[in-house]
Amino acid sequence: MEKKMAGFCIFFLILFLAQEYGVEGKECLNLSDKFKGPCLGSKNCDHHCRDIEHLLSGVCRDDFRCWCNRKC
């Protein structure tokens, strides 16, 4: 009986871990089309990409431009 219970617990543990480490869609980084001016704070860029362009996220890079993440 204990072996069945241990096997049952291991099965659900593996099932749970498989959900945590599932495959996610590929993301692409693209230059923002609508962001104006130099990108000095990633928080502003992230807000712009999410709320204005309806993309996943945004980040300022070392070229002072806003780059947005989107699903490929």
TrEMBL record:
Residues 27-72 form the Knottins-like domain. This is Knottins-like domain-containing protein. Belongs to the DEFL family. The keyword Disulfide bond applies. PANTHER family: DEFENSIN (PTHR33147:SF56), DEFENSIN-LIKE PROTEIN 1 (PTHR33147). The lineage of its organism: Eukaryota, Viridiplantae, Streptophyta, Embryophyta, Tracheophyta. Residues 1-25 form the signal peptide. It comes from the Eukaryota. One of its GO terms (biological process) is killing of cells of another organism. Keywords: Antimicrobial, Disulfide bond, Fungicide, Signal.
